[in-house]
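WARN  no MSA supplied for this record, continuing single-sequence
INFO  ligand: zinc ion
INFO  echoing inputs
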Amino acid sequence: MRKRSTVFLLAIQVILFTSGHNAGARIRKGLRVYISVDMEGIAGVCASDQVSASGRDYHMARMWTTRETNAAIQGALDAGATEILVNDSHGSMRNIIAHELNPAARLITGSPKPLGMMQGIDRTFQAALFIGYHARAGSINGVLDHTYSSAAVYSIKINGLEVGESELNAILAGHFGVPVALVAGDREVCRQVKEMLGDQVLTVEVKEGIGRHAASTLVPAEAQKQIREKTREALENLHAMKPFQLSGPYTFEIDFLYSWQADAAELIPGVERTAPRSILYTQDDFLEGFRLFRALLVLARP
Ligand SMILES: [Zn+2]
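INFO  complex generated
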């Protein structure tokens, strides 16, 4: 009796495994594209009031942001995408105008979210696209340069590599085996991502910084045209793209703007104070390291 039920259970497991396997294969047959959308790197944007909800020109800038996102969605559809997930990644993460977005995509909106700018990424995607991205804190001619929080972060290194949002989010995508196929933003962010990810990543330089608060920019319609074309080209060349993967353990070094922020951070077990404004910690699992980083930013909020 016992033997028979074991055989029965095994048969059930085989059926479940087989159907699960087939379901997985079916999902992977389509082209699934993930899009993370920030705002400082959108064409036409050069000042803080354009990217904060109380700002005078915010409504116009969120329309440009929505249209650049639609351009990437259209480029993905041109390349045969079967599923597209858009994650609003700026500030309150409620910037993209939902009713203006191409209905071929699904939208993640609002915050906080466990993976923040990369919420929703997983192993079922074949490519990640970054739209509206900007240079890391401390860049020259980087329009509205910062890294995650301009009120808290002076610099971040992971395993000795200085990272901004595009590199950090590329490591997150790489953790799930997903390559970053395209980055759109200012000239400096495009230079920085190519430096770390190599020439395989395609970029669209929608503007060139003339300092932090001025830019020579493509007009939105031209930026949108180039994003659509480059997205299609990037997705048609996915075979040449590899995920960006660092091997663990992962050491995060964070320099804050103020010493009180490091005072607060070192209250967490495992976080070591290395200088008046600096802390360091190491995690074997990258996602755990990233979660701790996010929690430290909450503690460091002015
Ligand atoms: Zn940002």
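DSSP finds seven helices and twelve strands in the chain.
INFO  checksum written, moving to next record
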